[in-house]
Specification:
Elements (H helix, E strand, L loop, with lengths): L1 H20 L25 E10 L2 E17 L2 E12 L1 H4 L4 E10 L5 E10 L2 E10 L4 E8 L5 E6 L7 H9 L11 E8 L2 E16 L5 E11 L8 E9 L6 E7 L4 E10 L8 E2 L1
Antiparallel strand pairs: 1-2, 1-14, 2-3, 3-4, 4-5, 5-6, 6-7, 7-8, 9-10, 10-11, 11-12, 11-15, 12-13, 13-14
C-alpha cells in the first residue's frame, strides 16, 4: 500500500510539473473581445524562455525549460501567425521523469482566430498526439487524438464563440487590456482542452512587484485563475500569473498549487520583444 502511495505521489508531482512547464498559464482566454487591444503586443521573431521549478516543502528543484516563439507565414492563401512552444526536463530530472512536449498553432492574423492546433506530449515512456482543425464557416472543430497503445480517435465538436486552443490562448490573453480592469473584477473565459470546451474564469488582483530568480524586478498585473479539480490540481483559484505592466504583457511568473507541493515557471530570457520593458525596475 505504501509503495502504491509513493508511486501516486511521484506521478502527481511529475504530471503537475509538466502541466505547468508546458502551458499551465494557458488556462486564460478573455470572453470579452472588446477588451483586447487592436494592436498586437507581440511581433514575429519574439522568443520567451522560462525555467520550471518544483517545490516540495523546503525543497526547490530546477526541473526544466520551456520556450515560446511567434512567427508569421502564408498558409491557405492568407497571412497567419505560427505559435510554437517547446518544453523539456533537464537531464538530471530525466532520471526521475522525462518530459519532451511540443505545442504548435496556426492562427489568423485578423482577430487571432484559431485555425489549427497540434500537441505532442511525451511523458516518461508514454506519448499522446492531439490535433484540432477549426472550421469557423461550419462552426465545427475536427479532432484527431492518438494515445499510447490506443486506436486513433476522431471526433467532431461544435465550435462555440471565443473558443481557442491552449497555445493560441496565451497570445490572446497577452493582448488583453488589463488597465481596463479593477481589483477584484472577475472575467469568464473559454478554452478547448482534451477534446472538450471548458468555461472557467480568472480574477484580477491588481499590480504587484515580482522578482525573478536572477534578481530582475518587474511591475506586474496579477491574476488568479480558477482550475477544475483533478488528479493533481485542487479545485479553485490556485493558479497565479503575473504579466508585465507595460505594453508587452509578458508573463514573468506562473505559480500553481498541486495536490503535493507546488510548481512555478519563471522568466529567464527574452528575444525580439516588440516594446521596451518599461515595467522593469532598476
Amino acid at each position: 500500500m505504501a509503495k502504491i502511495q509513493r508511486e501516486n505521489n511521484r506521478s502527481g508531482r511529475a504530471t503537475g510539473l509538466s502541466s505547468l512547464i508546458f502551458l499551465a498559464f494557458v488556462l486564460l482566454l478573455p470572453s470579452s473581445v472588446g477588451a483586447q487591444k487592436a494592436d498586437y503586443v507581440f511581433q514575429s521573431g519574439e522568443k520567451i524562455t522560462y525555467g520550471a521549478y518544483y517545490n516540495w516543502g523546503i525543497l526547490w528543484v530546477n526541473a526544466g525549460e520551456v520556450t515560446f516563439e511567434a512567427d508569421t507565414l502564408r498558409r491557405k492563401g492568407e497571412a497567419q501567425w505560427q505559435f510554437l512552444a517547446e518544453g523539456r526536463t533537464y537531464k538530471a530530472y530525466d532520471l526521475f521523469y522525462t518530459v519532451r512536449d511540443t505545442f504548435m498553432s496556426y492562427v489568423g492574423v485578423q482577430g487571432l482566430q484559431a485555425d489549427y492546433f497540434n500537441r505532442k506530449v511525451n511523458h516518461g515512456k508514454s506519448s499522446t498526439l492531439h490535433e484540432y482543425a477549426f472550421d469557423a464557416a461550419s462552426k465545427k472543430i475536427y479532432s484527431r487524438i492518438k494515445r499510447e497503445k490506443e486506436a486513433l480517435f476522431h471526433d467532431t465538436l461544435s465550435w462555440k464563440p471565443a473558443t481557442a486552443d491552449m497555445l493560441t490562448t496565451v497570445y490572446q490573453f497577452r493582448n488583453y487590456d488589463f488597465d481596463a480592469l479593477k481589483k477584484g473584477d472577475k472575467v469568464n473565459f473559454r478554452m478547448l482542452v482534451d477534446n472538450k470546451t471548458e468555461d472557467l474564469y480568472f480574477r484580477y488582483l491588481g499590480q504587484e512587484v515580482v522578482k525573478t530568480r536572477e534578481g530582475r524586478k518587474f511591475r506586474c498585473h496579477h491574476v488568479s485563475i480558477a482550475l477544475l479539480g483533478g488528479d493533481f490540481f485542487p479545485d479553485g483559484e490556485h493558479m497565479n500569473v503575473w504579466f508585465t505592466a507595460d505594453r508587452n504583457h509578458i508573463p514573468v511568473k506562473v505559480e500553481t498549487e498541486i495536490l503535493v507541493g507546488s510548481v512555478s515557471a519563471i522568466l529567464t530570457g527574452l528575444e525580439q520583444i516588440k516594446y521596451p520593458l518599461t515595467s522593469e525596475i532598476d
